[in-house]
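FAQ
Q: What does a multi-component entry look like?
A: The components come first, one per line:
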Amino acid sequence: MKSRLNVIDNSGAIVAECIKVLKNAKWAEVGDEIVVSVKKARPISDKTSGSMSAAKIRKGDVRRALIVRTKKEVRRPDGRYVRFDDNACVLLNNQQQPLGSRILGLVSAELRFKNWVKVVSLAPRVV
Amino acid sequence: RLEICSFSGYKIYPSRGRTFIRGDSRTFHFLNSKTESLFRQAKNPRKIAWTVVFRKMHRKGISEEVAKKRTRRAVKYNRAIVGTSWEAINARRNEKTEVRSAARAEAVKKAKEQRKNEAAKRKAERAKNPTADQKYSKQQARGASTKVHATSR
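Then the predicted structure of the entire assembly, as tokens:
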């Protein structure tokens, strides 16, 4: 069983499991892209399907995601270490655009350094 | 940026300590692993004797400074003196400068007049009694001492 992350956008997925790290490293950090398999998703009803974006996320979908929060602390340039309470991600499409239209909760400020501008602008709070 | 430890209240200089952001988006700064560990054990900083929170609550250290400052001030009392009553003192104090200078001028005038009168009086007396004011030395007033004559040889 691989690392599970909370999905904090409104794409419909709730829990995703990391199956691949998309960089030449053993682990991914905040601001890294990963491939996930959706483990839990919100039930899709036919009523809401029209208002949502074209992408319907179902359980078992394999998608790309961006890590936005980690329980493992991250080092900031001023020497501080910042740690969150959970692991969280945001689903992306293959062109690195966020799938959801809204993000719920905090994201880490590392995203700004790694040039995820769109995600940062969607986030209600960046710490 | 200078942070304050969320548990102990100490200052956290940059490149020290850790920051923890909880699920409800509350941020906690920790000075070191000691404070972090205590926080994770859900200890109440108000019960941990060395934290700033505890010291403030039990008024340690701070009250001494405050007490010192207070004792330095001498309390001023308004007291009456034996010779004059309190109202008299107050009246004198609250006299306006004009009133005071006017009173002084009057007093000076009076004194001058008195002196003039007295001088006039003396002159008149001198005119009457030319000898009355003669000055005698003390010896003259006593009189010459009688010579002691020898009674035996």
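Q: Is there any commentary attached?
A: Sometimes. For this entry: Residues 31 and 111 of chain A are 5 Å apart (CA to CA).
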